[in-house]
Amino acid sequence: MQTEEDKKNVVRLQDLVDKLQFKVKAYKRQAEEAVTYRGKKRIEAPPHIFSISDNAYQFMLTDRENQSVLITGESGAGKTVNTKRVIQYFATIAALGGKKAEPTPGKMQGSLEDQIVAANPLLEAYGNAKTVRNDNSSRFGKFIRIHFGTTGKLSSADIETYLLEKSRVTFQLSAERSYHIFYQLMTGHKPELLEALLITTNPYDYPMVSQGEITVKSINDVEEFIATD
Ligand SMILES: Nc1ncnc2c1ncn2[C@@H]1O[C@H](COP(=O)(O)OP(=O)(O)OP(=O)(O)O)[C@@H](O)[C@H]1O
Ligand SMILES: [Mg+2]
């Protein structure tokens, strides 16, 4: 006889497997898509952020000149989402054919491509918050510089950030929320941090972060916390 607890565990396991499969499929699809835009002229492929990225990449290789992609628009227009696509495109293209670096003990692990992509959740935890117009609104601007070697391989990247909306740390409108990181910490997913910071798991204990909402429907704070960590 299966107990109630067993049934729950099976459902939870299935849920996790589904999620993993979904992620893997999405990643494969994206890599395939990136390849179809590789080296095409803008009129040869349907309009796509990958096409813009590839044009910049090809111009850089042929003209030997720095290229910029300016991503602008009102709140919720898709700047953050598209910036991630651009970075992912460069990471996918620059990793094609290249061999992965051997892991060095004591150094940060993962290829440079992975490291650049993995920087995002951390930046967003400290710089994004729910606003009336966007559940994941960036309250900062960023200047991302990606350096390539002479053969077009990624060599390094740095990100400059500016203009954090400081007032949000102490005040939020009723339909808004402070920076994600506060609520991620208070999920209690990392008990050692609760202890080190001497905080509770109830945001309402802290008026500074609970003047507005404390949960966002479209955001799973525990999952985001794992990505940040
Ligand atoms: N190309 C797209 N296709 C479908 N949905 C999109 C697309 N671009 C953006 N969105 C949706 O719009 C939401 C807001 O996008 P995003 O966070 O990129 O906006 P933003 O321009 O960075 O805004 P802000 O200035 O507030 O930071 C995303 O969470 C996503 O759900
Ligand atoms: Mg944004």
Please render the helix and strand layout as text.
Layout: H1 4-37, H2 49-63, H3 79-95, H4 112-127, E1 128-129, E2 137-138, E3 141-148, E4 154-162, H5 180-185, H6 191-197, H7 221-228
Antiparallel strand pairs: 1-2, 3-4
The chain binds adenosine-5'-triphosphate (ATP) and magnesium ion.
Weakly predicted, low-confidence segments: none
What is the radius of gyration computed over CA atoms, rounded to a whole number of angstroms?
Answer: 21 Å
Tally the helices: 7
Instruction: Report the order of strands and helices.
Output: HHHHEEEEHHH
- For the record, the count of structural domains works out to 2
Query: What top-tier CATH class of the largest domain fits best?
Result: Alpha Beta
- Identify the CATH homologous superfamily of the largest domain: Kinesin motor domain
The CATH topology of the largest domain is given as: Kinesin
Structural class: mainly alpha
Strand content: 5-15%
Order of strands in the sheet with most strands: 1-2
Just name the CATH architecture of the largest domain: 3-Layer(aba) Sandwich
Q: So what's the overall shape? A: globular
- Mind summarizing the main beta sheet? 2 strands, antiparallel
* Helical amount: 40-55%
Protein name: Myosin heavy chain, fast skeletal muscle-like
InterPro entries: Kinesin_motor_dom_sf (IPR036961), Myosin_head_motor_dom-like (IPR001609), P-loop_NTPase (IPR027417)
Binding site for ATP: 73-80
Organism: Pundamilia nyererei
